[in-house]
Amino acid sequence: MTPLATPAPTFTSDDRTVLMAPRADCIADSAGGLTFDVTDHGADGSAYLVLVERAGGQEVRLPLAPVGDGRLRASLPIGVELAEGRWDAFAEVAGGEPIRLVPGVNDLRSLVDRAPSGSRGHVAVRIPYATKNGNLSVRSWRRAPHAEAGELLITGTELSVRGRVYGTPVTAKASAEARARGGEGPALRGEVDVEGPEFTLRFAYEELSEGRWDLWVRPGGEDGPEVRVARLLDDIADKKQIFAYPVTPVAVAGRDLTAEPYYTGDNDLAVVVRAVTA
């Protein structure tokens, strides 16, 4: 983690309007960085926007500077590292107790169809969102390398996934695997077509047994990195409830099953195969 070392500026009561719940508007830039405009603080002194990683408690502190109209601004450039996870947003004013922020207006248009260079060997993604309790949090990913899922196509009982790899070359030896959740049993090898950094992988549902299957690509073949297929490069923090795909009937070893692609809570691509119940 690389927190900013810039000292926090000071501000007075003339720099903001006082309300009980501080609100933060978020703007994304084309590089994937975020700017937070925080309003409605109730004390004078130095101010920070504090991001706290929910699982491990790590902190990143960003100085808030007055920009007029009762607003304080903090910047989170893409070069400031955030570990993968969910980061809760707080405002800390004049050394007081951090106050949970609520989301204002998000302008995340620059995140849609974003195409990072991958020159750093990894892809960093940050998407602000409202929690179920109405608070502001940031979902962060850091993948090295990364395989971005694009269009999904279901033809009969075959799933095709178009995608692009960032951070490592894709070679003619590229391969794909569907791995049973929990590591039980051998991985299923899928077909792969390669065109530059882009790929198309295909899996036949008939070859998948009942359970959940995670999709991977190996851009360099057996000797290269193993890369989880995921969809991260847009403005949707949680895709599981947003993206829905057809449920396909399939017969496997005389059993009636259904197969359905879906995104996990981490926006990784997977397939669930279920038995048909009466």
Any overview of this molecule?
- With 278 residues, this protein is an all-beta fold.
- The chain has no helices and 22 strands.
- It has strands at residues 10-11, 23-28, 34-39, 45-53, 59-63, 65-68, 71-76, 85-93, 99-100, 102-107, 123-130, 136-143, 146-155, 158-166, 175-180, 188-195, 198-204, 211-218, 227-230, 248-252, 255-263, 269-275.
- Strands 1, 4, 5, 8, 9, 11 and 12 form a seven-stranded antiparallel β-sheet that branches. Strands 13-14-17-16-15-18-19 form a seven-stranded mixed β-barrel. Strands 6-7-3-2-10 form a five-stranded mixed β-sheet, with no helix packed on it.
- It is elongated.
- Residues 1-19 have low confidence and may be disordered.
Succession of helices and strands: EEEEEEEEEEEEEEEEEEEEEE
**Count of extended strands:** 22
> Which residues form runs of ≥5 with pLDDT under 50?
1-19
How much of the sequence lies in strands comes to over 45%
Backbone structural class: mainly beta
> Quick check: average pLDDT?
88
Sum this structure up briefly.
With 278 residues, this protein is an all-beta fold. It has strands spanning 10-11, 23-28, 34-39, 45-53, 59-63, 65-68, 71-76, 85-93, 99-100, 102-107, 123-130, 136-143, 146-155, 158-166, 175-180, 188-195, 198-204, 211-218, 227-230, 248-252, 255-263, 269-275. The strands form three sheets. Strands 1, 4, 5, 8, 9, 11 and 12 form a seven-stranded antiparallel beta sheet that branches. Strands 13-14-17-16-15-18-19 form a seven-stranded mixed β-barrel.
Label this structure with key terms.
0% helix; seven-stranded mixed beta barrel; single chain; seven-stranded antiparallel sheet; elongated; 278 residues; mainly beta; disordered N terminus
